[in-house]
Amino acid sequence: MSKPFAIGFACAVVVLVGVVAWILHSHSGNYLEPTGKILQVRTVALDPSSASLVIDFEVTNPSGRDMVVRFINVKVTEPDGSIPDNSMIAATDLPAMFRYHTELGPLNLTPMRERDHISPGQTVQRVTAVRYDLTEEQLKQRKGVELEIVDVTGPKLELAAK
């Protein structure tokens, strides 16, 4: 192999590697991969046979695309491993619930609802609540809590806590 050919080949490889690296870097913000954490989980008795689980959480959208919430799902695992049915408490009903149940403290966070937007690079702290046909004591004895937030385009964020 001649020296000019080797130099030309090496330059072509360097340029090709540079182009591939640039393409990969330019698309890095196009993939929605939200991150987050559960800040606090609280329970409150709504009546003698039902209770509510209130979850404060934080979501970060590190991508270059808007995140639009399609739905929010909460699962509680009981000590025996079962997952009881629940019903979401509407975001518009949360201020009244916090006013009526003063043991929850003030409603400092904005309730998350479907179709909420999280802008690129934004971190938000939100709250959501669900109702269970369990007593507050049964709800406090849970094994775990899972919060799932799904974007309209498919990516989802799954958070877990005790």
Describe this structure in words.
This protein is an alpha+beta fold and 162 residues long. The chain folds into two domains: 1-30; 31-161, Immunoglobulin-like. The protein has helices at residues 3-26, 94-100, 136-140; strands spanning 35-47, 50-60, 67-77, 86-88, 110-111, 117-118, 123-132, 144-151, 156-161. The strands form two sheets. Strands 1, 2, 4, 5 and 7 form a five-stranded mixed β-sheet that branches. The protein has a four-stranded antiparallel β-sheet with strand order 6-3-8-9, with no helix packed on it. The longest helix has 24 residues, at 3-26. The radius of gyration is 23 Å and the shape is elongated. The termini are far apart.
Low-confidence stretches: none
Q: Give a count of the beta strands, DSSP E runs of length 2 or more.
A: 9
Q: Supply Rg.
A: 23 Å
Oligomer, anyone? single chain
CATH-defined topology of the largest domain? Immunoglobulin-like
Domains counted in the coordinates: how many? 2
Helix segment tally: 3
Beta-strand content estimate: 35-45%
Biggest β-sheet strands, sense, barrel:
5 strands, mixed
Structural class, by secondary structure, is alpha+beta
CATH class of the largest domain: Mainly Beta
Describe the global form: elongated
Question: CA-to-CA gap between the ends?
Answer: 66 Å
Tell me, rounded to a whole number, the average pLDDT.
91
Following the backbone from N to C, one meets helices and strands in this order, namely HEEEEHEEEHEE
Share in helix = 10-25%
Any idea what the CATH architecture of the largest domain is? Sandwich
CATH superfamily label of the largest domain: Immunoglobulins
